[in-house]
Amino acid sequence: MTSRPGIQQLVDLMEEIAPSELGESWDNVGLLVGDRTRPLRSVMLCIDLTEPVLEEAVRKRVDAIVAYHPPIFAPRKRITDEDAGGRILLAAIAAGIAIHSPHTAADAAEGGVNDWLAEGLGDGDRRALVPALELPGTERVKLVTYGPAESIERIRDGLAAAGAGVIGDYERCSIEIEATGTYFGNEDSNPVRGERGRLERVDEVRLEMVCGDRNLAIAIEHLRTLHPYEEPPIEIYRQAERPRRGIGAGRRVVLDRPATIGTLTERMRTHLGTGRFANDDADRRRRHEVVGICAGSGAELLDTAIDQGCTLFITGELKHHDVLHARARNCAVLLAGHTNTERGWLKRLRRRLRTGLDAEVVLSRADADPLRNA
């Protein structure tokens, strides 16, 4: 009998699809409710975990819900039946249903919500409006020392044993540079090379290795133990985080073929499968080449997009004064409705989860845009 994957397997796969580290600092992403050891037979996907959606999940006896918007967002001091959020959490826990939310992590991820949304525009170059920053834990600092050439191999081995020199799948990574060192030992010194009381010049090798914060103290201890000098030189440089062009908040799209707002609206209408659009362009004949994208509510990225040359900004919703602000800065806007800019990605997520899990994956039928056409 084939064993069913547990909730932890869903969590692991969601981390591959939408790494929680990509979520905004104000967001609440990842596993919000659930026992990671429980078996997993079925998963339901939704944008909003409302009471009707949870009732559907209980009726279908699903084991987990992936809710794009986190049902636990603002800090809660109590979980009771006095409000809808509390009732949803109580019912999910009582039914043994785990809840996972990817939200802004899915927006930022490569192949995530914003990339899916940008595909509707047509061919073009895509990059994040605000690139995500990353720095592996093993590369937080650079540790540098100098020593005689015959001692460098021993020092490198000792630092590697302490966890330094790890870059991705590679270990014992280092840089060696020939150098000339100088020193003047006082009366209390005991130099390994040369004499106290005079300036000495010696041939040395500069050794550089990356290191994690957790390993730094023991790495320095190893260096001191293995270095032949009475006072080994030790330099520590903190590494800056690196921007990733293809992941992060929003997208900036440079179209291969510029198009008017009317043409782009029709493309997005087909891509999203919705007729609920509002657009504004002072010159409707203008052809847009650089377009900003942000799923959901994108006001925080509006000025960023304009500053990067976008003449059209596409998002789910903007406040009235945000639209006026965009017009004042000569940027057209196209609004598709908040969840309309997110919902279609769930079908792509379903395909990915079906490939990676030995479980049934379904879309909620009760989950829908709360706004209806009049």
Secondary structure elements and their pairing?
Layout: H1 7-17, E1 30-33, E2 42-46, H2 51-59, E3 64-67, H3 84-95, E4 98-101, H4 103-108, H5 113-119, E5 124-127, E6 130-134, E7 141-147, H6 149-161, E8 175-184, E9 199-211, H7 213-226, E10 235-238, E11 242-249, E12 251-259, H8 261-272, E13 278-280, E14 288-297, H9 299-307, E15 312-317, H10 320-328, E16 332-335, H11 345-356, E17 360-363
Parallel strand pairs: 2-3, 2-17, 3-4, 14-15, 15-16
Antiparallel strand pairs: 1-4, 5-12, 6-11, 7-9, 7-10, 8-9, 12-14, 13-16
Helix pairs in contact: 1-11, 6-7
Commentary on this structure:
The protein is an alpha/beta fold. The protein folds into three domains: about 5-105 and about 345-365, Udp-n-acetylmuramoylalanyl-d-glutamate--2,6- Diaminopimelate Ligase, Chain: A, domain 1, CATH 3.40.1390; about 110-130 and about 245-335, NIF3 (NGG1p interacting factor 3)-like (Udp-n-acetylmuramoylalanyl-d-glutamate--2,6- Diaminopimelate Ligase, Chain: A, domain 1), CATH 3.40.1390.30; about 135-240, 2-Layer Sandwich (Alpha-Beta Plaits). The chain is about 30% helix and about 30% strand. The protein contains eleven helices and 17 strands. The protein has helices at about 5-15, 50-60, 85-95, 105-110, 115-120, 150-160, 215-225, 260-270, 300-305, 320-330, 345-355; strands at about 30-35, 40-45, 65, 100, 125, 130-135, 140-145, 175-185, 200-210, 235-240, 240-250, 250-260, 280, 290-295, 310-315, 330-335, 360-365. The strands form four sheets. It has a six-stranded mixed beta sheet. Strands 1-4-3-2-17 form a five-stranded mixed beta sheet. Strand 3, helix 3 and strand 4 form a beta-alpha-beta unit. Helix 1 (about 5-15) packs across helix 11 (about 345-355) and helix 6 packs antiparallel against helix 7 (about 215-225). The longest helix has 14 residues, at about 215-225. The radius of gyration is 28 Å and the shape is globular.
